[in-house]
């Protein structure tokens, strides 16, 4: 039996009973002959509580100390889990991200992994131990400071360790039974997907699906690490994410993989931009220099009478204030008239590998939204995705309408979210 990396989210280790349940699952994997490496998130809402506490102490906490604080949550989880495993008669050693050899750049709060040197993990495994690693964290290559990896960091830690250790699979344990055709908290008739390609999963993740984060899937695709998304609350088979379907069974991928939605973005419109070369470049250079990621971009046709155009784009709400400040500094140089900020939007995306060769998909998508009375503000497409921006209050109705229109509703039991978060 080969090496398996297992990752458990915050809902799986939310309390003492959850930790003991997870410990038993890990020991069962060990008894079956696997070498086991475990990556854990902070318990329940610990990270959110630490963030709130930091903001009460300091409105703008220093990045280095903020990371030092946030990594405490995972260290608590890993130590408690090691204790629970030892109570079951097996040896376990816990490691922080830096002890596990997770080397990152120096960008605090959203560091990126540069390398993984898991020497201590290999030693622990060779000695017959279960290795437990604190997710979401690493150590900077230059200053040796503690860093955090940002949203989805524990998933990324798990896949990075799986690649470095040449694991046969990375199992992501959460509080749903796998990847569904829509968020099961919104669409009760969402169907579980048995297998999905890395490409389709990347599109779902980048479009708002929370069960796996984009960085984690991208890392897995780069190093061809199969991911098995499962629930820690049940013994059911989950969803395989890989280049090819698992086993001997050949699966013809469905035209539509799923519907994703995201309410974490805002929209900025730069009004009255002179329609000449270099103006858009100056706008987006200001955004890039502040390390702000943007998503959808739409530029209107310029008015013939004025030679001015409007440029709209979406970005994370958390970066909204920083983006507005950066653009205001460019107002004189670019010569635009004003800025409009709107954080009451939602993005809805339809994802599927067969969309390009099925011309009725686009029409069906827009018809479903129209029948539900949902107005579209922005549109963006790729070969396997159509995304639109709508009003935030319309998102639930829109997702359900599109899910039903494309025949994705399940005829069987409703999807279950065991922990209530979908993570």
TrEMBL record:
It catalyses: L-aspartate + ATP = 4-phospho-L-aspartate + ADP. Signal peptide: none annotated. InterPro entries: AceGlu_kinase-like_sf, ACT-like_dom_sf, ACT_Aspartokinase, ACT_dom, AKii-LysC-BS, Asp/Glu/Uridylate_kinase, Asp_kin_monofn, Asp_kinase. One of its GO terms (molecular function) is aspartate kinase activity. It is an enzyme of class 2 (transferase). CDD domains: AAK_AKii-LysC-BS (cd04261), ACT_AK-LysC-DapG-like_2 (cd04923), ACT_AKii-LysC-BS-like_1 (cd04913). SUPFAM superfamilies: ACT-like, Carbamate kinase-like. Pfam families: AA_kinase (PF00696), ACT_9 (PF22468). Its EC number is 2.7.2.4. The keyword ATP-binding applies. It comes from the Bacteria. Residues 268-353 form the ACT domain. Keywords: Amino-acid biosynthesis, ATP-binding, Diaminopimelate biosynthesis, Kinase, Lysine biosynthesis, Nucleotide-binding, Transferase. Pathway: Amino-acid biosynthesis; L-methionine biosynthesis via de novo pathway; L-homoserine from L-aspartate: step 1/3; Amino-acid biosynthesis; L-lysine biosynthesis via DAP pathway; (S)-tetrahydrodipicolinate from L-aspartate: step 1/4; Amino-acid biosynthesis; L-threonine biosynthesis; L-threonine from L-aspartate: step 1/5. Belongs to the aspartokinase family. PANTHER family: ASPARTATE KINASE (PTHR21499), ASPARTOKINASE (PTHR21499:SF3). Catalyzes the phosphorylation of the beta-carboxyl group of aspartic acid with ATP to yield 4-phospho-L-aspartate, which is involved in the branched biosynthetic pathway leading to the biosynthesis of amino acids lysine, threonine, isoleucine and methionine. This is Aspartokinase. It comes from Streptomyces pyxinae.
